[in-house]
Amino acid sequence: MRYLTLDSGKRVSKIGLGTWQFGAEEWGYGAEYARKEAGAIVRRAVELGVNLFDTAEIYSAGNSERILGKALEGRRDAVFVATKFFPVIPSAWVIRQRAAASARRLGLPSLDLYQVHWPNPLIGDAAIMNGMRSLQRSGRIAEVGVSCYSITRWQSAEQSLGSRILCNQVEYSLVVRSPELALIPFAESHGRVIIAFSPLAHGLLSGRYHGAERPKNGVRARSTRFSSENIERTRALTGVLSDVAAAHDASVAQIALAWAIRSPAVVAIPGAASVEQLESNAAAAEIDLADDEYQALNKASAGFRPAESTDWPDEITLRGMKHLAKCGFQLAKTLRDDRRHRDEMAQEG
């Protein structure tokens, strides 16, 4: 495993583990996966040197944090845990309460990285950063992060915080390269970090779907990015990925991951459906792409144009309200589940 070393001395693995799917029925990973496979994946990740684990309070209404926290028991000193809160009510008091709830679900005394999950399109970041500053001063969080922020909003949020915001978590892959315009250059020149989510474009870059196989889980099956036309439009890119993969005795997915983390400021957090997939993802950190291979992938990527799509990444301001409402509903479910868990624990006690 390779690492990015922060100025605090902490190391962050270049390949992490995204845990959106932990406990999420929409991904096709139900209770059995949560009881067995998720824990095995986390334990194996730690063995392989993966120490970056990313989750959020709205993932499976808090269950992702609970599952991850249980899997990390006895291993917490070896990891860097990142979670996120959704800023439906962006007040300092609420943020402190949400951070405490996430730490409780994760079984952690403090959070390594606490991120704003989405830029609230109606309200700025002053109150949010007041809460973050309070959490940092009290030692309940170590680092502040944001997610899906433009470069302007990231820098504005830093001004409100009065210190650096370590990272910005954004979608970045061979088919979503907009972070290269400003976000990655800013991170590289200012000691910041880009956390790349969906580095395989939800599996579109895995090479699995260019034959007869089509996505079976609900998230992919409903996504227009997995339409026959979009899959066909990635065929040339997948061909170049296959050629580079053959030269490295690697998989197409491993080459796509190696490309995503080539910048010294970028780490990636692919998910994993199995221990085997986790092992494959982790091994991608060791792949060194030659300059000509990297440029060939860039050229093939530049030739890709997605079909008209309603869910392909767009300007945050255009979809912010819809996303805010959807995730606000999920946050309400998280709060209900928190109350249910507290009631169950009180009865057991």
What would your notes on this structure say?
The protein has a single domain (11-348), classed as TIM Barrel (Alpha-Beta Barrel), CATH 3.20.20.100. The protein is globular. The strands form two sheets. It has an eight-stranded parallel beta sheet. The N and C termini lie far apart (43 Å). Helices cover 46% and strands 12% of the residues. It has 13 helices and ten strands. It has 349 residues and is an alpha/beta fold.
Sheet/helix structural class: alpha/beta
Shape: globular
Radius of gyration: 19 Å
Known CATH architecture: Alpha-Beta Barrel
Instruction: Give helix % range.
Output: 40-55%
**What's the CATH superfamily, by name?**
NADP-dependent oxidoreductase domain
Kindly report the average pLDDT value.
Answer: 87
Give the tally of β-strands.
10
Report the total helices.
Answer: 13
* CATH fold naming: TIM Barrel
Q: How much beta, percentage-wise?
A: 5-15%
Element string (H = helix, E = strand): EEEHEHEHEHEHEHEHHHHEHHH
Low-confidence stretches: 310-318
CATH domain class name: Alpha Beta
